[in-house]
Every structure is written in C-alpha cells, then in structure tokens.
Amino acid sequence: MPLARARADAARRRVGALASHAPLDLASTSARSSTPAPPPVVASLDDWEALVGGPPFGPGPWLDVDQARVDAFAECTGDHQWIHRAGAATPFGGPIAHGFLTLALLPALLNPAKGGGGVLPKHAWARHELNCGFRRVRFVAPVRVGARVRARASLVATKRFEAKGGGDRGDRGRTIGVESTLAVVVEADGSEKPALVAEWITRQYGDVEKEAR
Questions:
Q1: What are phi and psi of 86, to 5 degrees?
Q2: How far is 27 from 192, CA to CA, in rounded Å?
Q3: Rounded Cα gap, residues 160 and 157, in angstroms
Q4: Contact by Cβ (8 Å): 53, 171
Q5: Is pLDDT of 191 > 60?
Q6: Cα-atom radius of gyration of the chain, to the nearest Å?
Q7: Does the model's pTM come out above 0.90?
Q8: Exposure string (b/e) for 20-54, b if CB count within 10 Å is 16 or more?
Q9: How does residue 164 score in pLDDT terms, banded at 50, 70 and 90?
C-alpha cells in the first residue's frame, strides 16, 4: 500500500507539472470569443526560438466529440470497450471518448493546415515538419460523448540540429532545423479539469544559416 500510494502521489505531481506549462483559466476563457485570432506566421527560426516561455497559443475553436466520431475511432482501432458505446451507463454519467481519440485530435485542434482552424504558428521558413511523438501524456479527466474540446499549447523548449552528411540537406555541420517541445492542454467544455496534458515533440526543417560559433 505505501508503494502504491507513493506511485499515485508521483503521478499527480507529474500531471501538475505538465499542466503548469499551460494553466487553464476556465473562468476567463469561457468569456472569450469563440472565434480565435488567426495563427501568426513565424518568419525565421530565430523568431520561433524567441517564443520559448511566452504566452500559450490558443485556445483554438471548439470541436464536437460526438458518438459518430467515437464509433469511427473504435472501428479503426478495434477498441470497442463498453464505456465508449452509445447508451452506456458509466460512472461518468454516460459514454466517454477514448483517451487516445483525444490525443489523436491534436492535429485538428492545433495545426492550421489540418482543417481544424488550429492555433499554432505557420513556419514561413520551414520546408516541412515531422511529428516525433510525446515525452509525457496524461488523460486527466474523461471526455463525455457529446462534449466539445479545444486545445492550447506553449512552446517550452527548442534545440537546433545539424546535417550529418552531404547531399541535398547541405554540408555536415550546417543547421537544418529545430526540435520543438510543446506543452499541450486539451480542455472539455464544462469540465473543471483538463482532459489531457502532454509534451509534444515536433521537428521543423528549413534553410537555416549555420550559427556563428
């Protein structure tokens, strides 16, 4: 029992640390316009790095998590657990969405190019971006089917990387991009707790001059 309690306490501390990157102010955000400002355009890598530790991007527009979306995700993943089915009598007052569905909605909630009206800046300097995964993910509160969700993100760290060889990427040692860490919070309409907190790692590749040493 002491070991289980210690693990639970440690998990709660990790969730709190993640949420502190992009704190939810539900009282103020509920009063904001439902139509957020368009995402800014970042002209250079230097401009992107200057945003580290700044205010969060978002929140973005609300997105409906209806039963049809939940059923489609269940069919795609093979996760047909009863708590996600229509009419389920759960401790949460009805069926809930998959936690991994909430996670999978991040591109639609955050990225402006993914059709969700996202809030992340567009990189004018970058040729392309890659999703590198997550350092931490926590499903803090369930998302009830029929609820709306939206997201915000804060840039908490960047790390430039260099070409490892020649070819069309450039000479060895030349800076070709940056690895970015975003602290992400997804909130569900009407919930006092965030639905999800995570650290999302992405990479942006572009034509970047080698830094002066």
A1: -60, 135
A2: 10
A3: 10
A4: no
A5: yes
A6: 19
A7: no
A8: ebbebeeeeeeeeeeebeebeebeebeebbebeee
A9: confident
* Pairwise CA distance, residues 112 & 78, whole Å: 29
Of 45, 52, 70, nearest in space to 161 by CA: 45
CB atoms within 10 A of CB 14: 13
**Strands 126-139 and 194-206, bridge-based pairing:** antiparallel
d(CA 146, CA 119): 23
> Strand pairing partners for 166?
none
Q: What CATH code is assigned to 2-64+109-206?
A: 3.10.129
- Name the token pair of 78: 């093979």
Closest CA to 202 of 168, 185, 178: 178
CA 127 centroid distance within chain? 21
| Nearest of 127, 129, 80, 139 to residue 107 by alpha carbon | 129
Structure-token pair, residue 106: 């991040």
How far is residue 54 CA from its own chain's centroid?
A: 16
- Encoded tokens for 142: 């369930």
Name the one residue in this structure whose structure tokens are 């070819």. 167
Residues 6+ apart with CB under 8 A from 31: none
Q: Single out the residue of 148, 165, 153, 163 nearest to residue 211, CA to CA.
A: 163
Which amino acid is it at 50? Answer: A
